[in-house]
Write a structure and sequence with these properties.
The chain is mainly beta and 323 residues long. The protein contains two helices and 24 strands. The protein has one domain: Tachylectin-2, Chain A (5 Propeller), CATH 2.115.10.20.
Length: 323
């Protein structure tokens, strides 16, 4: 059984803004939530100082966007001085929550940092109006932990998050979004050493989608490919990483349990703006809102622009169950 997402013919749907100092180079890896009949996008942007900020755009059709002139989230302390990155947004009980990665010069852990050059914090923020955001705090400190996202509802009376404690994707529970105890965390799945596209690294993408058959989650992965020199000037091998998207189905009541994980990817770089950019050979998604029976998968193309691919929810669920 094969399946793949379909690119929108109007791609890419968001480009850098040349007249802006903070988003003139790259706009990519957006979160998107559909609320009150509108698509709300939160995208990672880089400009003249190469520091990531999070911009906001709104759309009636998911294709044509009006954006604010200033970012809605920007560095504010030593813990995020090098950027705020890769947002994901969910609504829980009428409140909106953004998970994002803070990258800063200050290291808040104990001992030696696990990430060269500074601290990484998997942060959580909240909003009641989709524009102003209040920081709540990190899921963990002192480790290179990314790709975290909240489930769109509580399970067993607790908040639930997926996060990546490399090389595995983990599940975490918390009562109040501020205290995530290690005893309430467990690994779920990791790279598949014998699989051709996700043998080296995996991570979660957008918010889990609740279906009658389980939590449907999109993920990404890559396999390190060593390439020999291709001409007389390139004598040493080079390393190539191609990011592809896949999916996985988790139990509704106990999402530590994997129901099914198809072997093949559902999306990969093919367009020139996915193959060449600030980081080549990348499609990376943080957003998969469902509107009607359509899944809108927004993704960063080569860390430079925003693209859109779609499918029906029924077809994606079918592949996640039996692919």
């Amino acid at each position: 059984m094969t399946f793949r997402l379909q690119r929108d013919p109007q791609n890419p749907v968001l480009l850098p803004e040349p007249a802006s100092s903070w988003e003139c180079y790259n706009v990519f890896n957006p979160a998107v939530i559909h609320h009150d009949g509108l698509f709300h996008m939160y995208y990672r942007a880089q400009g003249l100082d190469w520091i990531s900020r999070i911009g906001y755009a709104v759309s009636a059709d998911g294709l044509h966007w009006n954006r604010l002139r200033e970012p809605v989230l920007a560095p504010s302390a030593g813990s995020d001085s090098r950027g705020v990155e890769d947002p994901r947004v969910v609504e829980i009980d009428g409140v909106f929550y953004m998970t994002y990665t803070a990258y800063g010069r200050d290291y808040l852990g104990a001992g030696t940092p696990t990430h060269l050059g500074g601290g990484i914090l998997p942060m959580i923020a909240r909003s009641t109006n989709l524009v102003t955001w209040e920081r709540i705090g990190p899921l963990v400190v002192g480790e290179d932990n990314k790709d975290h996202v909240l489930f769109p509802r509580q399970i067993g009376g607790r908040y639930v998050a997926l996060h990546r404690r490399w090389p595995q994707v983990w599940l975490a529970y918390a009562a109040d979004l501020r205290t995530w105890d290690t005893k309430d965390m467990a690994p779920i799945y990791g790279p598949r050493p014998d699989n051709w596209w996700d043998a080296t690294s995996v991570g979660n993408n957008g918010p889990p989608i609740e279906t009658p058959y389980g939590w449907l989650c999109l993920n990404h992965g890559y396999t390190v490919e060593v390439q020999e020199g291709v001409n007389s000037l390139q004598q040493t091998p080079s390393v190539k990483r191609t990011y592809r998207l896949g999916c996985i189905l988790l139990e509704l009541d106990d999402p530590t349990q994997v129901i099914h994980r198809p072997q093949e990817p559902i999306f990969w770089p093919e367009e020139i703006w996915e193959l060449r950019g600030d980081v080549s050979n990348v499609v990376f998604s943080n957003a998969n809102p469902v509107v009607g029976d359509t899944v809108y998968v927004y993704y960063g193309g080569a860390d430079h622009v925003v693209g859109l691919a779609t499918c029906t929810l029924a077809d994606l669920v079918e592949y996640a169950r039996f692919g």
